[in-house]
Automatic annotation (TrEMBL):
This is Large ribosomal subunit protein uL3c. One of its GO terms (cellular component) is ribosome. It comes from Linum trigynum. The keyword Zinc does not apply. Residues 1-38 are annotated as: Disordered. It comes from the Eukaryota. One of its GO terms (molecular function) is rRNA binding. The keyword Mitochondrion does not apply. SUPFAM superfamilies: Translation proteins. Keywords: Ribonucleoprotein, Ribosomal protein, RNA-binding, rRNA-binding. Belongs to the universal ribosomal protein uL3 family. GO terms for biological process: translation. InterPro entries: Ribosomal_uL3_bac/org-type, Transl_B-barrel_sf.
Length: 84
């Protein structure tokens, strides 16, 4: 906080005055981040334990531990997908 500045992350000026009289496209502004769906491909299912209700997957998954994940078969055009 040099010289008593209290606005480090706050938005300052968003553009000039009368000319151009608008805010330019692509102006960096605050907004929401995250909460989007992501697809991760080429993951391998190592083991399925129906007693515990656990699916072991080899690879990195998005999100924090405890989040819900949705599994769907891969849609690869022109290739056969094995049933196992």
């Amino acid at each position: 906080m040099t010289h008593g500045s209290k606005s480090h992350r706050a938005l300052g000026s968003i553009g000039a005055g009368t000319t151009p009289g608008r805010v330019y496209k692509g102006k960096k502004m605050p907004g929401r981040m995250g909460g989007t769906k992501t697809k991760i491909r080429k993951l391998k299912v190592v083991k399925v334990d129906s007693d515990l209700g656990v699916v072991m997957i080899k690879g990195a998954l998005p999100g924090k531990p405890g989040n819900l994940l949705r599994f769907a078969p891969a849609k690869i055009v022109g290739k056969n997908i094995p049933k196992n």
